[in-house]
From TrEMBL:
<dbReference type="GO" id="GO:0016034">
    <property type="term" value="F:maleylacetoacetate isomerase activity"/>
</dbReference>
<keyword id="KW-0828">Tyrosine catabolism</keyword>
<dbReference type="InterPro" id="IPR034330">
    <property type="entry name" value="GST_Zeta_C"/>
</dbReference>
<dbReference type="GO" id="GO:0006572">
    <property type="term" value="P:L-tyrosine catabolic process"/>
</dbReference>
<dbReference type="InterPro" id="IPR034333">
    <property type="entry name" value="GST_Zeta_N"/>
</dbReference>
<dbReference type="GO" id="GO:0004364">
    <property type="term" value="F:glutathione transferase activity"/>
</dbReference>
<keyword id="KW-0808">Transferase</keyword>
<dbReference type="InterPro" id="IPR005955">
    <property type="entry name" value="GST_Zeta"/>
</dbReference>
<keyword id="KW-0413">Isomerase</keyword>
<protein>
    <recommendedName>
        <fullName>Maleylacetoacetate isomerase</fullName>
        <ecNumber>2.5.1.18</ecNumber>
        <ecNumber>5.2.1.2</ecNumber>
    </recommendedName>
</protein>
<dbReference type="GO" id="GO:0006559">
    <property type="term" value="P:L-phenylalanine catabolic process"/>
</dbReference>
<dbReference type="InterPro" id="IPR036282">
    <property type="entry name" value="Glutathione-S-Trfase_C_sf"/>
</dbReference>
<feature type="domain" description="GST N-terminal">
    <location>
        <begin position="4"/>
        <end position="87"/>
    </location>
</feature>
<dbReference type="InterPro" id="IPR004046">
    <property type="entry name" value="GST_C"/>
</dbReference>
<dbReference type="Pfam" id="PF14497">
    <property type="entry name" value="GST_C_3"/>
</dbReference>
<dbReference type="InterPro" id="IPR040079">
    <property type="entry name" value="Glutathione_S-Trfase"/>
</dbReference>
<dbReference type="InterPro" id="IPR036249">
    <property type="entry name" value="Thioredoxin-like_sf"/>
</dbReference>
């Protein structure tokens, strides 16, 4: 019996969802997408139906192989272990550690601080808050990447770190962060956005992208 197609619960603009969409695209895994609008109806992630799926009431969530997973890196690691090609974690333990370090730096050290739930608490200051959080994170990241980067975040192969970088740069641009001080981040991001997997998973090309934001 053929296994059912995975179902991804996603919001077009969610950077965490975009990470997973890139992984699915790179690994050639076709899936059905269920949009969860984080703004409409006070946030569809707060519905009882979605809470049953992901108690954290966040996207992404992925139904795959009979289980439901949340948290983007947990999902990406599962995809890496079940669909090893193309690999998203280098074989060399040092490079692999660097990939995880950069990914963690973004997913733990930058993105949660400028997440929608935090910005709601910030009121009028939300733009300034988001800019400061991203800028301080990017200052550190720029320094790290100067030691690890080749064409991409770690050497010349796309890795889990890159899947975190491009969506975070999109967030930075949305919050009008000056990218001038971060030439390495900017260069890597430009190279990533030329790749097909990053293009088809892009927020401007999702089923739930509003008409005015479509590419």
């Amino acid at each position: 019996m053929p296994s059912e197609k995975p179902i991804l619960y996603s919001y077009f603009r969610s950077s965490c969802s975009w990470r997973v969409r890139i992984a699915l695209a790179l690994k050639g895994i076709s899936y059905d997408l269920v949009p969860v609008n984080l703004i409409k109806d006070g946030g569809q992630q707060f519905s009882a139906e979605f809470k049953a799926l992901n108690p954290m009431q966040q996207v992404p969530a992925l139904k795959i192989d009979g289980i439901t997973l949340s948290q983007s890196l947990a999902i990406i690691n599962y995809l890496e272990e079940t669909h090893p090609n193309p690999r998203l974690l280098p074989q060399d333990p040092k490079k692999r550690a660097q990939v995880r370090m950069i990914a963690d730096h973004i997913v733990s050290g930058i993105q949660p601080l400028q997440n929608l739930s935090v910005l709601k608490q910030m009121g009028e200051k939300k733009m300034e808050w988001a800019q400061n959080c991203i800028a301080s994170g990017f200052q550190a990241l720029e320094q790290i990447l100067q030691h690890t980067a080749g064409r991409y975040c770690v050497g010349d192969e796309v890795s889990m770190a890159d899947l975190c970088l491009a969506p975070q740069v999109a967030n930075a641009e949305r919050f009008k962060v000056d990218m001038g001080p971060y030439p390495t981040i900017t260069r890597i991001n430009k190279a990533l956005l030329e790749l097909e997997a990053f293009k088809i998973s892009h927020p401007s090309r999702q089923p739930d992208t509003p008409a005015e934001l479509r590419a």
